[in-house]
Amino acid sequence: MSELKSKDFFYELPEELIAQVPLENRVESRMMHLNPHNGEIEHRIFKDIVSYLSPGDTLVLNDTRVMPARLFGHRAGKEERIEMLLLKRHGDKWECLVRPGKKMKKGSEVIFSDELSCVVVDILEDGNRVVEFSYNGIFEEILDRLGEMPLPPYIHEKLNDKERYQTVYSKETGSAAAPTAGLHFTDEILREIEEMGVNIVFLTLHVGLGTFRPVNVENVDDHIMHSEYYVLSEESARIISETKRSGNRVVSVGTTSTRTLEAIYNKNGEVVADSGWTDIFIYPGYEFKVIDGLITNFHLPESTLIMLVSALAGKDNVLHAYEEAVKEKYRFFSFGDCMIII
Question: What angle do CA 178, 183, 189 make, to 5 degrees?
């Protein structure tokens, strides 16, 4: 039992440092290098990432793809607007967050367009609705046309290009939020990394909206973590295991890749092909079994994400680095700059 308090992970952030739009060129983001052993800091640009990687290392990327999961419609026969956010697929039904929810009782129908509607078939304990869609055509194509990207609550600007909230390697649709550390990569930089002898492997973790949920309890131990679905292939598991055996480094891109790898190791005692749900919560005191380095964005104060980063680099080192980032006017959160801890 740790005695960590959520307030131990608070830092002051001026609102103007929250990035509202992505940079035009992904690799031009600033990148802070934090040495986890001595807390030393360097200020670089993301395209300098190659100078922190070595032949034989393995870079692990999350290839999840964000659904344009925010839909707007109206109740059948009514004019009031209904906002629906798709969270999880359950066979042919979806768990959704609905606003306003009070009038959305079982049997309520929502019309989105001539080709898409849904009916509420269940109401869950947390107030989320389970709905069943009716549509003409292919559901994913309709969603792509009608849906909007579910941008985080701290982003107030409209996103002009949906693809800027996707990684260039996104493939497996299912996330309600982007694995944002990967937004800095381009196809060109990935090629450059591969050509220098670094392995690039993929896993999938579908990011839920719980990633933005604040820690609302005083004691960190009391926080209940959200659960997310992951998949790791045999090929990726083999390369990661070989990297560890050979004494080379596994560098995780993002907290989502990190949580997946550590959850699989904790479950199986090694990195193996696996799929399932994880609610792993990593905070200081945790001993990492798989990752040796991490590429990550700057995270919200008192969030589970800054706690994970602090587990790897030390809380004092991380909070000092964040203070430095504020002083140097780094751009924060999803569309912001990044940090490499190695």
Answer: 150
**What distance in Å separates the CA atoms of residue 175 and residue 211, rounded to the nearest whole number?**
11
| Cα–Cα distance, 166 to 180 (Å, whole number) | 8
Domain ranges across the chain: 6-66+161-341, 70-146
In this predicted model, what pLDDT tens digit does every residue of 68-114 receive, in sequence order?
Answer: 999 999 998 888 899 999 988 887 799 999 999 888 999 999 999 99
304 strand-pairing partners: none
How many CB atoms neighbour CB 227 within 10 A? Answer: 13
Domain 6-66+161-341, CATH class in plain words? alpha beta
Tens-place pLDDT, residues 260-289: 999 999 999 999 999 999 999 999 999 999
Tokens of 54: 């070595």
DSSP-derived letter for residue 273 is S
Cα–Cα distance measured from residue 286 to residue 336, given in angstroms and rounded to the nearest whole number: 27
**15, 112, 300 from 22: Cα distances, Å:** 16, 29, 17
Q: Which CATH architecture has domain 70-146?
A: Beta Barrel (2.40)
- The answer to pTM > 0.90 is yes
